[in-house]
Amino acid sequence: MEAPAAPHNAGDIELTVTSPDQMRELGRRLAKLLRAGDLLMLSGELGAGKTTLTRGLGEGMGVRGAVTSPTFVIARVHPSLVEGPPLVHVDAYRLSGGLDEMEDLDLDVSLPESVVVVEWGEGKVEELTEDRLQVVIHRAVGDTTDEVRHVTVTGLGERWAAVDLSVLSA
User: Fold this and answer.
1) What's the first-to-final CA gap in the chain, in angstroms?
2) What is the spatial distance between Cα 59 and Cα 72, in angstroms, rounded to a whole number?
3) In the predicted model, is pLDDT for residue 109 greater than 70?
4) Is the sign of the CA dihedral 112, 124, 63, 24 positive or negative?
5) Which residues fall within 8 angstroms of residue 106, CB to CB, at 6 or more apart?
6) What pTM value is reported for the model?
């Protein structure tokens, strides 16, 4: 039996975001590229803007309910109001068991008909699918009021091979 090939990297796009409003707008633009079955992994320090980006995704996807951090409930489902896929928003920060704990959430069941966004998903959700978007948000750390964020969006797998991520910088 052959080992599975490494996921194809469809390329990166790097963006600079200077305000929470711009981060939400990036989420709204990103929502236009998404379809049922998509997995997004969001990485970044506390306060980097992962939930703000997801709020913009929810707005762009036309889902019901305010998108807030699901830290204490672990996962929250936002049904579509516009005949699109639901948004499943997961905060894996408090999950230490890797894929076993993630499997308890049945994300593999939700994934085919939903857009699944996982904050803090590194090392926990990669086995769900080779096709995913990785979004890494870097911000200045320490005592700073700096709102500047450097965002790297990487498309992995066949799903993202033909998607032009440069539209995100429009």
Assistant:
1) 44
2) 22
3) no
4) negative
5) none
6) 0.85
